Each structure stands twice: as C-alpha cells, then as structure tokens.
Amino acid sequence: MDLKLAAELQAALLPDGCPIECKHHVAAARNRMCGWVGGDFYDFIPLNRDQSAIVVGDVAGHGVRAALLMAQIKGFLQSDTLDRSRPIRIITALNDMLCRLGDKTDSVMSCSMIYMVFDAPSGMCLMCNCGHPRPLLYKSDDRALSHLGGHDILLGVEPFEPTEICHTFMPGERLVLYTDGICEAANGRHELFGESGLRQVLRDRGDAPPAQCADAVMQAVADFRGGAAQADDETIVIIDRL
User: Fold this and answer.
1) Is the overall model pTM greater than 0.85, yes or no?
2) pLDDT per residue over 71-85, tens digit each?
3) Could you tell me if 182 and 221 are in contact, meaning their C-beta atoms sit under 8 angstroms apart?
C-alpha cells in the first residue's frame, strides 16, 4: 500500500500536459517507470508569457530513494526564489544543493539532467546538459538527425562550472530529449535498442505529430524488449518548432 501511494504521488508530480504548446511549438512527453516508483522525471515550467523551462532528468538508482530525490529536485526547480530563466544559474544552485545533501547523508546524490529555456517567439533556446544523453535534432526538410550540444558531469558529484549553449530553433526542426532507459533497453539476447534504434523510429515517424512519434518510440522499445524485463525507467520528450 505504501508503494502504491508513493507511485500515485510521483505520478502526480509529472505534468499532465505540455504547456509549451502554442502557435510556435507543439510538444509531447511519455514516461514508463520500471517499478512502482522511479528516478526519471520531466517538467514544463512556464516562466512568463513567452518563455518556458523544459526539464528532463534521471536520478541515479531506482525505487523509493530515487523517487524521493526526484521529488526534492522538482520542488527545488519550482521555487519562485530562483532565477529560472538562465540554465547556468539554476544548474549551479541545484548542484550545490545536491552536494550539500550528499555531505549530510554521507552519500552521492547524483542525477543527470537537461535544463533548457525556450523563448517561443524567437525560437531561441539556452541549455545546460549535466551528464544526460545528448538531445537529438531532427530537420524535416532533409530528414537529418544530429546531436545538440555536449554535456558536463552529473549533478551532485562535485562543484563545477556548467556550460550553457544557445541554439535558435527554426520552423521544421524537432527536438528529442530522452533518458538512457530508451537506448539501453535490452531484449532476451542482451542486445540493446541503442541510439540507432531510436534514430530509425524518429526518421520513420518524422512526419508524425510529436504525440504519435513519442508513442511510436515507446512501442518500438517495448516490442524490441519482447519478454525481457524492463530494467530502467524510460522517458521521451519531443518538441516541434512550427
């Protein structure tokens, strides 16, 4: 019963919809935990009339410990006392908080995370990537897929100076954010779905709306896994620039 309640509370922390949807963007998100509770999370945080923050993260480990840390991080990101419009500032503050928490518990409270701020009218995006799989950028005109930006170390390990990148999204571009559970899904022969599997689905469903494309990715991962047990949480967020 306690685990069921924890699962219900964690599900309530994930957004029901994608507030970034407007005349400039449309988005979709899908999440599949590997147990009652897990460490994957995502969020869409309205900052003002034109800007929204998009977060995708993966707390190390599974179970209740990961879920509790995920809730702590989400609460921190929602705090009105933070300057949430600059990824470099909020990532620095979050990393400091996790390092202090680790010192108090004599453990490492690590998490991979992407934090980005979208300006809807201009398409400009500021992003910090801390140990997370690099986002994929899909261009509908030539069906090309490329990585967006590099990444820093995991949050919660040690103090560091984050790297902030800037990209201006053009109409027809699609941003794909995901956790490593997607590419590391394994079948009964211990083969991995891999980034190659993800890229194939994204190309095959490049003309589909974000929601249908996200559903196709989750279904392809489940089909690939077959009868093998899900070993990690799986999350994907897809955003189109209109």
Assistant:
1) yes
2) 889 889 988 767 889
3) yes
What is each CA distance from 28 to 31, 62, 93, in whole angstroms? 10, 24, 28
Contacts of 112 (CB under 8 A, 6+ apart): 57, 58, 60, 130, 131, 132, 133, 154, 155, 179, 180
Q: Which residues of the chain have pLDDT under 50?
A: 1
> Shortest CA distance to 118 belongs to which of 29, 31, 21?
21
What pLDDT, on the 0 to 100 scale, is given for residue 1?
40
| Domain extents in the chain | 36-241
Sign of the alpha-carbon torsion through 30, 26, 54, 162? positive
Q: Residue 16 phi/psi, 5° resolution?
A: -75, -35
- Architecture of the domain made up of 36-241: 4-Layer Sandwich (3.60)
Q: Which two tokens stand for residue 54?
A: 């998009």
